[in-house]
Amino acid sequence: MANQATLILIKPDGLKKSLTGNILTRLSETKLEIVAAKIATVSRELAEEHYRHLKDKPFFSDLIKYLRGELHNRRKVMALVYWGEDAIKKCRQLAGSTNPEEAESTSIRGSYGRITTSGVYENVIHVSSEDKEAEREIKLWFHPDEIIVNLYPTKEAVEKEKKIKVWA
Ligand code: UDP
Ligand code: MG
Questions:
Q1: What is the model's pLDDT at position 151?
Q2: What residues does 24 pair with on adjacent strands?
Q3: Under CATH, to which class is 3-146 assigned?
């Protein structure tokens, strides 16, 4: 199996429960390389685009609230790209099943996830599920220059008259 990339999100419940260190330690068992990492606030557009495959589900609006941190008063996620051999399978295995009640009890989701009364699975971590999805998601969450390896083809572009923030 060739090198592969996967997006990982530590979701707002993971941050609120102070699980960041714990989750990163678990993921380090994979021996994969972290090639990008940041704390990000999640706009409605980003959340809806990220979970667009679920937009017809009855729990979609709660899911968007969840990812945006509205259920945990933590308006941020930690986003990372892990890279290496068989990255998706290795990370999904450690994460466990989507439904935390069905996830193996020793997995990340089995250990720390829960199902809320509204029915949303609060499962503390997101892992891409296959190559194409990983590419779509990584391009959604990161600019090319935030990733320290060349994962996907890039092109040069000139941004004109764009206002940016600098240190005062
Ligand atoms: N989800 C949920 N109820 C469901 C299915 C999914 O609350 O019946 C949530 C859950 O947080 C999950 C996310 O929607 O992680 C994305 O669902 P997907 O089927 O892509 O599962 P994943 O790839 O995260 O395991
Ligand atoms: Mg998925």
A1: 97
A2: none
A3: alpha beta
